[in-house]
Hints:
By secondary structure, this protein is mainly beta. Helices cover about 5% and strands about 60% of the residues.
Amino acid sequence: MKKWMFVFALTVLPAFPGVSLAEEEQKDKKIVSTMDEVVVTATKTEEKRKDIPNSLILMDEMDIEESPATSLGELLANELGIDWRTYGNYGGAAQEIQIRGMSADGTQVFVNGARVNSPSLGVADVGRIPLNNIERIEVVKGPGSLLYGSGAMGGTVNIITKRPQREKMDLRASAGYGSEDTYELSAEQGMFVLKDLGYYITATSRKTDGFRDNGDLDHKDVSLKVVFDKGDMLGVSLYADYIDRDYGVPGVKPPKGTRDYYVNGVKFYNDEAGSLVNHGADEDYHFVLQVKGKPVTWLDYNFRADHMSMENFFFQRNPAGFLAALPGEGTESWVTNDVSGTELTLDFKPFKGASILVGGEYRDYKYENKQRNLDQFGVPLPATKVTRDYDVLTKGAYSEAQYRPCKFVKFLAGFRHENHSSFGHENLPRYGLVVNPWENGVLKFGHGKHFKAPTMNDLYWPEDDWVRGNPDLKPETGRHTDATLEQDFLDGKLFFTLSYFDWDIKDKINWAENRKYPTLFGLFKWTPSNVDSYKAHGWEVGTKIGPYYNMSLDLSYTYTDAVEELAGGSERQSRYTPDHYFKGKLTYWSEIGLTATTTVRYMSDRPAVYLNITDTKPDYTLNSNWVVDVSLEQRLWNHWIFALQANNLFDKEYETYAANFTDIPTGTTTREGFPGAGRSVFFRATFEY
């Protein structure tokens, strides 16, 4: 602890001469009432916050820069009603966002309006999205399937990337180094090269050895946004990015004292990592073309065409033979998803206070799965290579009408019809009510039906001796109801929000042994089926105070009662969902250019594993934990910024998930956890112009 206090003191005590606009920027930001903030994601048109029947989270560049977060997932983890989850403390661990206790495949993530969730898994790995590329984040909680189709059950997250500014050249470069031999280089530059034509480009390279053996990551990304801006009449943007990642996959952390284990001279695991040989790689491309405009006062149009290509490679070897297998054998697989889509929305305003949004969307999913076996030395066996291809088409048509007869009330109603080439169609209604009983205050009510189509892995995972997909799956369906109070006080220096939510999901897809499909060894194959259902209700309460005396304070608390419904009518707490979640953020800035931010998160106990499908008491529980992060940023001479981030200062032993580990020499199988991110420090120097 003394070492951390010393580092903190070294950073805070020097009073560097310099000029900072931090305080003025904070004040300017609060001049506009929170109720008047503009949101696009909630209705696919520009609307003020007080006109939207959803609970919202809005973040801009300043919010991102002030945060001690090192990733998008960690940034959103500090927000009300959001749970950030990752499979252990290694560099390439997938980072998932869950809203209101719903699983990660119930949250849809978009970049510039284009979906980035993996069609194979249904979830979005937000750890791949670089922070330096983001201008704004809009999180809309509640049912989103009417506008966004499959999977938007708990909410949507839309990442809006940076764009050039007129009469200004943006230039920013940074370099950083931290614990676990982590370094990062990033650069961005944007400007208008002609009167109406501009561009913004970003690039990042990040490497780390990770907190554990085989926890390394090598990440590179680059993005480009080109805009042609003619004002309200015509706006065209073309966005493209490329992401490349290589990483180790250490798995669970074995019990302390586990001895090193070798297969054919190769170390397979030790007491730090359940695997020292498994590794993976991702290669992603995204292209988004958007054309929008307002040719007449009563009509807005927005056309989007996008293409996404995602390829995942996974190399896996088993430390022990099983039945016919030999120790060291395994598989390597390539799963590729190519998704192309187009969407057109028209927003009509027939008379004052009324608007009608109509739209249509078409998407083509191409899925390819390649696999081949590895021998006991990890050498590929070419003759075993198998390739399978599948194609899924979806079409959606939707309409949403809004009417505000007076300044005190607004009504919303909509309907979506979705066609899916695998399971047929779904009809999705949505209703909303906004009441503005007083200045800078709003009451919001929303209700809608949601659904999630089976993933490509659920439908088409190749059949082998142990697993198979299920092309006869039905979609998960359910409804989501919420009510929200939002109020601004003291000219925007105090914001308060309170929400109640209630949702359920029917025909939840679950992977388990299925007696319909026996194996050659007296067991049964794992396959997905529609067997589960679960539901939840809860409360969210949050407040933002400041700026007062160069400080601002955010506090939030979420209570979630999420239960899985079992046969016979009994219920049990949903796995990995905490009942209580508390978050706090304190930011201080001074006239000498120093900004300091501390974030705190508390999560209560949550069940991880139930031994049997009928059990109501968990076999393994993840303990409650506190996570404390600190960020210190000093601006010098207007153009230089020096920042120090210290993450997870205290409770470094918390766990995120659990799984079995078998120690081969002893034959002992134990339940072990995926450890959360360890304590880390990162220093960054940035030049901006």
